[in-house]
Design brief:
seven-stranded mixed sheet, ATP-binding, globular, PIN-like_dom_sf, PhoH, 17% strand, alpha/beta, PhoH-like ATPase, 19 strands
Length: 558
Amino acid sequence: MPVAKAKVEAPKTSTKSKAVAAVLKAAPAVLKNAAAGIAPAAAKPAAKAKPVPAARGKVTPITAEAPHPAKHKPHEVAIKSSTSRHADQTGTTKLFVLDTNVLMHDPSSLFRFEEHDVYLPMMTLEELDNHKKGMTEVARNARQVSRTLDALVSNTDDDAIENGIPLSKLGNKDAKGRLYFQTRLQTADLPVGLPVGKADNQILSVVRSLEAEQEGRPVVLVSKDINMRIKARALGLPAEDYFNDHVMEDTDLLYSGIVQLPDDFWTKHGKDLESWQENKNGQSATFYRVTGPFVPSLLVNQFIFLEPKNGETPFYGQVKQINGKTAVLQTLRDFSHNKNNVWGVTARNREQNFALNLLMNPECDFVTLLGQAGTGKTLLALAAGLAQVLETKLYNEIIVTRVTVPVGEDIGFLPGTEEEKMSPWMGAFDDNLEVLNKSDSDGGEWGRAATQDLIRSRIKIKSLNFMRGRTFVNKFLIIDEAQNLTPKQVKTLVTRAGPGTKILCLGNIAQIDTPYLTEGSSGLTYVVDRFKGWSHSGHVTLARGERSRLADHASDVL
């Protein structure tokens, strides 16, 4: 409940009412100018805020774009074939011929082509059969596709297979097209010298044959195999990548969790300002209710900042509620000050302060931190976990997990228990624990050793392989290197959360080691995009490296 509430209006005379004076005392200095009708000076050029992406919806097909600036890591931009673009302009439905790797990459890909038809060559079914054995993700996907095809084919007569099976048969209403199987031998002349027995060449032969049979109908090969697409283009056949699994095509538009307020924000939004104070989680916070044109572009739990260059107090806040053009903003706790340190760690920059506000907020159940190497993701997460497990006892223990994808060659099997097998992958946490232990200098060597043993007893290292079916209650779960997870794996992990559990996903989408995953289709990108705007989750993209001047320079020049 609000402790004090007052309404601020621009004064008509030089004398201000007591209510206005009370609010201005609590408000930042920029609010004084707003109430007095003075426009604030232009904000100093801070880190440029990324544009807020449009509301989440269906992923639109990509058209050719201008090349990205040289500074950005070049990444593959999926471009439609000219046949596909022409069909889109004329409104003609297409016939997509699927390569096996598309089905094994995304088992639900059959239902992702909207009103268009899907064609499966017999060689695709043969390759599916060859990959169905084993316990790998590819084998599981192959078996799932086989079950889906069986359900589609069951209870249909031979004519239905020849004329196409409706893809909406199993309840997928978005799939309005039909599924066709190769029911007879289709031969087409390919250039002399191409091995006829090779699976890729047989699929290319089917595409060419379909083009000849169905004149005027756009036939497009869809494959995840780059060489297959190059070969098809060289033979004059339209080919595309399967990009329906991409959350977004340009990761520069990924939600950053932070927005810089315009310089005239308080002038335009300070007319009917309301302010009050509340005690939340043992901390006093000031709240402002503002109304204006900038509010609809904000999201719940997004961080906002305004840094005037005329020496006035900067404003850092978080959006707590949005209702039309009205928003409730909350001031932040300053974790850059030593009195608010978290296990001896203080925020070194604005983004780290925002991150610690999320990590130390018990109302925030799901936190994602993105940033390049050395921005402090793991250190902040571990410090917040130790403070809330050992000091405030909000959680029982810290559970740490990560994907075991090596950067170089695999070194083979590792000896020992699950914990011992995972320990080489957890070197980053050992490094950070060493830093956190050094900050405790009061107890001497013996005291530090005892503290280290206590910390070790509260940190459990788990493998992703054994997460299925588990439920974590009152745990602080850290998922490191989450950029190497697929959206399906992220869903498996996040749904493990029981009552009182907080989940953190840390990662750098520029360092993906998993084959077939890109910046746009990574599980980390997926959860950041899907969770934005939820009142119990938060995201921060950490911008500045704080590891060392050597690491910062290496990130820039290498």
